[in-house]
């Protein structure tokens, strides 16, 4: 149940990013749900490989290059889906930052799965 709720909240976070940034468009809430799944899969499968491959640049920039990787993953997800449009790298970078802030806030608001006694 928590996973489904987190998925819906991530889709709402994506809708919030699209509302605040005119360079990011989402056609419908269904497109936002699909984009949240694609973003999760891209970040789970492709991002770790890119982090390892770009480790020297990440170390030279003191970790700031990870933001570039996140922006590229956001832009990639936008290019894979019909109803989710990211119009370039810079909107992807700022959209990824804003999306992670919204997702973190929503995840922090969720209670834990079982109550601790």
What does this structure look like?
The protein is 74% helix and 5% strand. With 117 residues, the chain is mainly alpha-helical. The chain has one domain (2-109). Strands 1-2 form a two-stranded antiparallel ribbon. Helix 2 crosses helix 5. The mean pLDDT is 91.
Report a brief summary of the structure.
With about 120 residues, the protein is mostly helical. It has six helices and two strands, in the order H-E-H-H-H-H-E-H. It has a two-stranded antiparallel sheet.
Measured as a percent range, the helix fraction is over 70%
**Which structural class do you get from the secondary structure elements?**
mainly alpha
Determine the number of helices (DSSP H or I, runs of at least 4 residues): 6
Mean pLDDT: 91
Radius of gyration: 15 Å
Order of helices and strands: HEHHHHEH
End-to-end distance, in Å? 21 Å
Note the topology.
Elements: H1 2-20, E1 24-26, H2 29-45, H3 47-53, H4 55-60, H5 65-80, E2 84-86, H6 89-109
Antiparallel strand pairs: 1-2
Helix pairs in contact: 1-2, 1-6, 2-5, 5-6
Provide key terms for this protein.
117 residues, mainly alpha, two-stranded antiparallel sheet
């Amino acid at each position: 149940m928590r996973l489904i709720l987190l998925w819906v909240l991530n889709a709402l976070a994506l809708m919030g990013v699209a509302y605040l940034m005119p360079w990011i468009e989402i056609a419908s809430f269904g497109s936002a749900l699909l984009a949240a799944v694609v973003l999760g899969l891209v970040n789970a499968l492709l991002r770790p490989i890119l982090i390892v491959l770009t480790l020297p640049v990440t170390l030279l920039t003191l970790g700031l290059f990870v933001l570039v990787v996140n922006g590229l993953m956001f832009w990639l997800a936008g290019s894979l889906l019909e109803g989710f449009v990211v119009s370039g790298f810079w909107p992807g970078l700022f959209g990824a930052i804003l999306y992670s802030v919204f997702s973190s806030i929503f995840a922090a608001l969720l209670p834990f799965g079982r109550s601790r006694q």
